[in-house]
Structures are given as structure tokens and as C-alpha cells.
Amino acid sequence: MREYKKDLGQEALTVLISDEINQILRANLYEVGLNEKELKRLRLRKRELREALNNCGIGDIFAKNYVKDVIQDILVKKLKFSEKEWNRIIAFEDRSRLTLRDKFDILMYFYEKEYKENAFDIFMKKNHILEKIFDENMEYCIDSELLENIFSGCSCVLSELDKQKIVIQRIYAGYRGLGIIDQLRDFGIDGISGGVSGREGEYNSVWVFYHGITLHLKFLSFESERELERICMNIYRYGNPGQLSKTKGYIVNEMKDHSRVVVVRPPFAESFAFFVRKFNTIEKKELEELITDKESKIMIDILKWIIKGCQIAAVTGAQGTGKTTLLMGLIGFIHPSFTLRIQEMAFELHLRDTYPDRNILSFRETESISGQEGLDLQKKTDGVVNILGEVASIEVAAYLIQMSQTGSLFTLFTHHAKTTENLIKYMRNSLLSGGLFRNEKIAREQVIDAIRFDIHLEKDIAGHRYIERVSEIVPKNSEQGYEIVDIAVFEENKYVFKHMFSENTKKEMQKRMTEQDRREFCAKYDIQV
Prior knowledge:
Layout: H1 10-26, H2 36-55, H3 61-78, H4 83-89, H5 100-115, H6 119-126, H7 129-135, E1 141-142, H8 144-152, H9 160-175, H10 182-186, E2 191-194, E3 206-210, E4 213-217, H11 225-235, E5 250-254, E6 260-264, E7 273-277, H12 287-290, H13 296-308, E8 313-316, H14 323-331, E9 340-344, H15 351-354, E10 360-364, H16 371-378, E11 385-388, H17 394-406, E12 410-415, H18 420-433, H19 440-450, E13 453-459, E14 465-475, E15 482-491, E16 494-497, H20 503-511, H21 515-524
Parallel strand pairs: 1-4, 8-12, 8-13, 9-10, 9-11, 11-12
Antiparallel strand pairs: 2-3, 2-7, 3-4, 5-6, 6-7, 13-14, 14-15, 15-16
Helix pairs in contact: 1-9, 2-3, 3-9, 4-9, 5-6, 5-8, 16-17, 17-18, 17-19, 18-19
């Protein structure tokens, strides 16, 4: 056995672990003199280890824990590391020598020990961090002073096993993990990004997307461009999506746990950077759980009848307003016999996980298959309802308008338009840019005939999400050709009913409802049958 010193620093320990694991993988089992049963067991271990090493940094928690167990075996069983070594690697017994990262890792370890994947959420709530930020009108960040205050008030008592686990996580993070974001990425947050702030040579650039707020963790640093690059080159690898290179300066992919990951690099971007959006934190919720402000029943009823009436609707709003979550809630009102076909840029909704007994199939864009081709194919797959995770290109927007007039029963989609007027203009311009129409007026008429409702979401500065309005696009025989009518709005901190659906829309909705729904709808809004 090779001899190693026990006074190695963290970087040298990472090299040591790499050497030891490579030795396991390179070992010639036939030279060891094992019997057939032992050979079979070691072959299996080598195969499992290779698979775990390939999958551990891309959202596979089981692979991550497997590699950490191997690291533990090397350090504890083979090299006989004990509490003395753990204290040398991280100065647990001398708080004055602990780095900011050390302190954060210790805090997260204790929160994770008790609250599992909710560790960061409980950390934020127990320490009233958002309240402090809002009350003191601070920038949205946790800086070193705030972290120091939290840590100084922590009476964490570390056992030898606690220290061992914290050190092993640190070594793993630098070896095959995702560095300073490794634990954070696994917690129940909405997303995380890195490489998106700071002057050249500064790497304090970790941002967490938490409850609709983008929060800067100023005390965390990648330390070097090399480390940031290592994380970027590893985080997107799930499913072998191709190579991030100078020629191909960005990649959009998903991770093993269905998180969406976007990675960019120079010269396309000014620095290496990554953006992880976690969709496994999005749970199916009833609208009563999502829409909770005063008079919420007004808004819930309107949304219910739009869906039961099979109306084409856009869910609009900025990133983080809850479009995907609301869309999942709306799907619960779609008749269970209707088949659903979903088109996304990257798989995000994962509706079959939520509705395993329904006829659902999702498609996504690839390098060789465009969104338009995917939508074209959907017409041949017996789809009744089409759902577009996001209309983000001119081609898909143009195809949406075509599809809504000839293909499915109705369509739901999300878009980033700020106003209904902007939504109409974007769709109109998409038809013109795609070459489907040359006349602006005719292109606009196509959009007005296709899209009936705009469900617009907002969030305030404190991260409170709400439906700002539901607007109907009503065709009119006028110069403009349409009128935008607000059916319900959010004002003075409550939902307010403004106008009834137009006569034509009421008739169309009733035609597509079941007899029971039709009677309930007419009774609700005092409609003469």
C-alpha cells in the first residue's frame, strides 16, 4: 500500500482521493488471485464506481452518495483518518480560523441533518433573512457580516462523525462534485446560477433563486476561473448533449433530476456561467393552494371555466412569477379523457409524473429537430390538447397560431409578454417574419381569432406572486380589430370581478362543456340557457 502523509491540505487530499480511486479502477483483478465469486463481486464494484463517477455531478443523488461512501472508505478504513485529521483539514476547534465557507458548510450540515432537502429554506426562515433584507432596505444578498452574525449565534456541537461527514462532503465537492454550490443545488430551492457578477478576477458570484427572489450569496467564492470552468464543464453532461466549446458557446440541457441547466462560455459570453432551474421543486397544487389572496374564489372560478370551456389561453409573466406552477394547476381542470401533447425547449413540466394515468406525451427540441417540426408531428399523435411549455421563438409562435385553428381542441402556452397588447404584437410579427402573411392586418386578425385569454402573473418586490389580471381578447369590427377586456384583476390586495365573458365566448365555452359543467356555469353567472 502506498504511504500518504496525514497533514495534507484540501487540494492535496483531492489529488490523493483521485489517485486512490484511479488505482481501484485500473486494478487487474486476475493478478490478485481471487476466486470466481470474489472476482464477480469486484467487477461489479468497479462497474458501479464508474457509473457513479459519471453521474454524481449531474443531479444523481444516489451516485453522489456512492462516491462519498468510497471516499469515506479510503480515508477512514484504509488511511485511518480520525478526529485529529478532520480538525487539521477544517479548523473545527478554533472558530477564529474558520473561513466563511467553513461556517456556511457547518450551518448547512446541521440544517440538512434535521430538515433534509428543506435545509436552506428553514435556514432562511429561522434566521428571518428575507425580513431583515426588506426591513433594512438592503440589496438582496447574504453578505459576510450577516453570515458571521448567524454563525456566532449558532451553538453547534460537532461530534467526530459530524466533522468527518463535513470534510468528506468538502473533498467530494472539489473532486467530482459542483464545488461551492454542490449542497445548495440539491436543496429545495427554485434555482441557482454562477459566474454572473463581479469584476474580472472576482468569483463571489453565486446567486440563488428562492421563492421568486434572486438572492446573492456574497460570502461564497469559486476562488478561481479554473474552478468555475470545471463546474460549468461538468454540470450539463447528463445524456451526452454534446461538447461546450468555443464554436458552440452554449448548451441547454436537463440534469438527472429534471432540473434545466444552461451553460455558456467565452467568446459567446464574457465568462463561464451556468443557470440551473429546478423543476422537481414544483409540485402539483390545487388552485386554492396557489391563489390565496382575498376573494381568490373569483379568480379560481374564472380560470376553471376558461379551461373547462376549452379556450386557448396564454399564461404570461416574467421569470419567477409562477407560470409553470399555475399551468400545472390548470391542467387539473382538463377533462380526464382528453389526450395531452406537450412541446418544450427542455423537459420541465413532467406531467406524466403528476398525472400517471392520463394519456400524455412530451416532446422537446433537439439539435436536429426544431420546435416547429415537433409541433407538426404532434398533429399525427391523436392529441386533443396541446401545451407549449414556452413560446420563445418566432417559428413556434407562428406555428401556435396555425395549430390553434386546425389541430387540437385547444392550446395552453406560456410567454413572457408584459401586456396583452405586447402578446398580440409578438404573435402578429411572428406570422409576418415567418413569411406566412405579408399583410399586417390579416396577420393580426389571425392572432385575434386564435388566442382568447391572457392570464398574466406578477410578483412584487417581496416575492409575493399573484395573478394581476385575466383579459379576454374580443374581436371587433373596428379599425383596430379587437378589444382587450379585463374579466378579473388584482387590485387593493384582493381579486375583483370586472366584466363578464363576451357573448360569443360564452356560447363557445358552453358548446365544449359537459352537460353538468354547462348547468353549473350558467347558474354561476346567471346565463340564460
